[in-house]
Amino acid sequence: ILNTFRITCISVLIYLCYRVLIVRQPWEVISLMQILLWNNLDCIHGLHLWFLPALLYSYLFVYGLCKTGLFKWAYWLVPALFCVRLAVIMDPRNDWHMAQNFLFCGIPYMMLGHWFARKREQTITHMGTAGILAAAIGGWLLNYGGSVLGCPSVFVEIGNIIYSVALFLLAMKKPSCHINLRIESIGKTSSLY
Fold it and tell me: What CA–CA distance (Å, rounded) separates 186 from 164?
């Protein structure tokens, strides 16, 4: 948690300095609320950094659940948060940040990963590699095909959820398969476990 906090603070400070010193745009008080509430870093030209505060909030949320003993009950939040995310995405009046934040993106994936890690043996033995690969390909086709063909963004997001879960299951089923050692080392040194 501390490492993620440091990375988030340093990144926000760098982009804030860029905004104030290079672009010469003043800092706005409303910007702080956007960062804290929706992980919206547009105000400092850091849109791509939304995941850092989302990751930090997700870690803190999961930590709080573990400390209070509510974690096993909180797994029911995963499908609910994914459904709310899809509903938010379907409404064209909503801003992108209302769906792409810690609550609807970070927490469900983190809790789902925790559940799979906890149920590792049951998950690995009951899931065939061919079925997981088929789900990964189907999710990717929905995600990529939906983007290219201009389908409603809800199809793209459903594909993203399926694809992400399938890739996670494949990684659990085939831990000896290495794709990128640098990314793996980041995951091993920065994860919760």
Answer: 18
